[in-house]
Each structure stands twice: as C-alpha cells, then as structure tokens.
Amino acid sequence: MGCGSSSIKVKKSAKTIRAALVIQNWYRGYRARLKARQRYALTIFQSIEYADEQGQLQLSNFFSFMLENYTHIQQKDPTLVHRLFGIGPHADNSRQDFIGLIEIPDSYSGPRLQFPLSSVSLNTLIEAFKKQQILHAYYVLEILFETKEVLKQMPNFTHIRTCPNKEITICGDLHGKLDDLLLIFSKNGLPSGQNPYVFNGDFVDRGKYSIEILMILFVSFLLYGDDLCLNRGNHEDFLMNMRYGFTKEVLGKYKIYGKKILQVLEDVFSWLPLGTIIDDEILILHGGISESTDLGLLHHVERNKMKSVLMPPVPIDKESNFESRRNKGHTLRGIRLNGSPSEYLSKHEWEQVIDILWSDPRGKRGCYPNTCRGGGCYFGPDVTSKFLNKNHLKLLIRSHECKPEGYEICHDGKVITVFSASNYYEEGSNRGAYIKVGFRTTPRFFQYQVTKATCLRPLYQRVNTIESNAIRILKERMISRKTDLIRVFQLQDRTKSGKISMGQWAFAMENVLGLNLPWRTLSSQLIITDQDGNVDYMSCFYDIHIQKPVKEVQSAVIETLYRYRSDLQIIFNVIDSDHSGLISMEEFHSMWKLFSSHYRVHIDDSQVDELAKRMDSNKDGSIDFNEFLKAFYVVHKFDNVGKSNTSLA
To answer: Which PROSITE patterns match (predicted)?
Structure first.
C-alpha cells in the first residue's frame, strides 16, 4: 500500500512539473512577444527622430541659399548673418554688459549662491531644483561666464586618469531629464575629487529641465574641473535647440533675460571640449568616428569657431560656388563673404567635427553615409579596429543613440554606447545607464529607470501605451505625405482596383517616407487587407486627417505646411530676432517665398496669404507664428492601437 501511495505521488509530481513547464514556456513566449512589440515601437520612434535630424541638417543648405539669393539681408541685418554663420562684426560678450544692470529683488525666493562657488552651492542648487525653483538670471549668467573662461583654457580633448582607489563614471545623453541626473547622483554620489565624472554631451533639448542640468553640471565643473569632464554633443548647438525645445525652455523661464542667456550659451557650447581620453587607452566621443577621422587634426581644430555644426563657416565667393556646383553636381555648403580665411574652419575640419558628433556604429564593414540622420557616417568593426590600432587605443565609448537597456556593446567589445536618459520616448520605453571605469579593470554597467506611477503598471499596459504612441506619430508622418503616397499607390495599381500587393505597399511606404521600418510587421496596425493579402491602400488614411484652418485651401497645401512645420518654425524663430513670437506680414511673405523656392514647393501665394490673414485675427499686421503652426494639427478619428487583435506581435 505504501508503494501505491508513493507511485501516485510521483505521478502527481510529474504532472505538476509538466504543468509548471507549460506555464513557464507560455509566459516566456508571452514576454518575448511583448518585448518584440516594444522593440518595434522603439524602432518607429528612433527612425522618425533620425529623419527629423536629417531635416535639421538640410536646413544648413537653406540658410546658405537664403544669403546667396537675398544678399540684402546681410546689409539689412548683419546681426542675423552673424548669428547664423558666426561671421561679420562681432564684439566679445562682456560680462559687465550682460550682468551689470541685473538686480536680484528682495522678493526672489529661489536659491541664492555665493561666489566663489563651493560644495554648499552645488547642494543648494540641487535641493532648489528638486523643488522646481528657478535660479535667477543673474546667477545663471555668472555661472555661464565663469564656465566660459575656464573652458577657453582647456584643450580639445581632456585627459584624465584612473588610479587603484578612484573609478571614473561615464554618463551619456541626459536631454533635459533632471530626474535621471539626480538618480545617478543618488546612486553613485555627487561629483568630487574622489568621484570623477565624464558627461558625454546632449545635456539639453527634449526634456523640460535642460537649464537646470546645465547649471548643476557647470557648477560641478567649476568646483572639480580636473575631475569632471564635459564633452560637446550634437545638441549643444543653437540651431538644434530651436527645433528640439531648449530655446523655448530658456525663453519661457527667463522672459526678460532669456535672449542674453542664449547668446552667452552659444559661446559656452562652442568652447566645450570635443572628447575625453582615459588612461591614454579609452576614447570618449559623443557620436563616433569615420575612416578619415584624424585625432591629430582634431587636437588642433579651433573648436570655438563652430557656433553651430549645422552651419559650416566656409568662406567662398560666387564664382567658386558656381564652379563647385557645376563640377560636383551638389550644393556646396558655404556663402559669399569677405574676410580672412584664418577666421573660419576649413571644410575638412568641419567634416571631422561632424563625424565625431553625429556618426553611429553598425555591424557592416566599412564606412558609408549615415542616411538616417543625414550627417556623419556609419562605421563598421574594421574601421573601429584600424582607428584604435593607429591611435594606440583599446576602447571607444560613445552615446548619441537610445538603447533599450541603457547601453550596448558592439564591434567585438571595442565600442560601447551609453545612454543615460531613461523613459526617453515614453514612460517605460527604455532604461538609462552609466559606466564605471577603474584602474586596469573591465568597465562595469549600472542600469536604472526613473519610476513613476505609470511605470508600476503591468508590462503589457506599458507596452500598449508605448506602441500606441509610436503608431500615432507614424500615422501623422503618413498623413503629411498623403498626396505623394496616393500617387505612388495609384501608379502601382494598374487595374484601378484600389488594391496593391503587400510588397508594393511596403516598398512605397519606405521610399516615400524615407523610414527604414519593418513595414510588413507593422501592416496590421496601419492598413486593411483582403483574404488574398492584398492591401486596400486608402485604408492608410481612414482614421486620420489634418484639420484645415481654412476650408478653401487645398489638401496638398495643408500637407506641405504640416510636413515642414518644424523647419518653418526654426526659420521664423531666426528671423524673429527679438523672440517676441510675432512676425510681420512682410517678413512672413518674403520668407515663405524663399522657403518654397528652395524646397521646390509649388503653392499658390494667394493661398498662403489667406492663411496668414486668418491668423492675424486682430489685424495688427503681424502674426503669432506659434498659433499659425498650431492651426495644423492631426485628428485621429479613432484609435485601434490598444486592441489585442492589432498588436505588433
């Protein structure tokens, strides 16, 4: 009887184990599908982000075109010319001119700093920013001028060393996410002589607290300059800041003195070092390298001449510009200027800096254009090995790309990407990370994620939210190219049936939108197919349209304005030199004509005039361009994204 009881127990135990294994396998598959959906969503976010950056880089051609074709701008507004190209009459920004007339009122309740700064100042600043207090403009400008003076004494590459009892912490992009910086300090300690840091660029833009991050980093730098390194990223650039939020943040927080702060920041950004070298073995750059990257040349580039890496200050005359275009078949970035060539960087020097700020590693061998971003290059493992061997280095650490886990190792362990802004695209979209490098030790990785109420939700809810927003912005990109997409669809639809094959649809989407995405996998979210798998291509637009501010205006006009809304906003922000947000009707018309000519956008001027007049509601002869832009918004009629039958998995 005892034996029978034992046999029954063994059978029950075996069934329990089999059931547990079935449940475990199901759960693993379930999590794998959720993770796959999350990866696809991140791919959408990243592809659209890079496409926007490509558009930003292309703006440099527009500004060159502007000055070549509207030479009167140089006579009418030399300050504008200087702002765009770093040329023309220029007087060094005087500390007294900027700060001398600023007084701190007794009513100011924010943090008060004592100069010279001390560790107490850093703690005071951090505690105030935790309470969302605003630092007075007087202190901001004082810190900026102090930082600029110290940066001017520094080489292009900062050399720093480890020792047996001192590790160096390396942080990647922060992008205005103050919570991530504070979490790093909470976990890893504040900067000090015994706790050195390297911050690898992209401190600003996208997040809401870029100026706070800058103040903390600059105060830390002034206190511990030998043990706190700040590298320039591709977002430490005033033209990038106009598109991605930092300019708007500064003007919003410092309405009276915002313009002065931005002017000084342009200089400060231009003096930031290009990279850091640890123990003569580890090179830290924001972006990457190319097959032509020359560290010897980069050590001697006059980096401060590059106010914006998007606006290469290369002086050319009209004749040489014409010859170059005729011979090479493309637009040479440059403008007709007077001045000594010694005042400007050469085209080769500019390309070197672009490469180290914008490039990305890839698994494919060789070096080829970074077509997604539009600047820098993709470099393969062979390029990395050759570069490291030539310069007697062992490792390249870079940032510049959001990674799901906060870091990524590639090129046989010779390239590490570190990204420190968690929840970069959406809550729960990615973890942040930092690296600790010790004396003759392997780099150690530390991951984290700023946790809010939304992050505590189950994984499937977080993935659904991320996926929903990714599909939403992808559909907005599709609707901005609706006319072009329909034209291509109809060319492929030879029978006029309203349907094309899945392959034809995917090919059209990739070529028109310029986004390298897994279109077949995403198709269930975007279109309707019949039983044979053919695509009803007009279903792309069933649940979405762009709201028309003026009914009479053609849909193609609305699409074009919506597509280029970010470019238009930057152009008008540049022209709006007093940052009032108001543009005269004359400025609006002239700039629109220039814009449409350069981009070959054929829109009836009368239609654009009608739009502008509608925006000028008080008939004072000027328009609020932000309101003009807001008039073009996308309406999602209904949202299928969260439903289980339309998931990406």
So the answer is: EF_HAND_1, EF_HAND_2, IQ, SER_THR_PHOSPHATASE
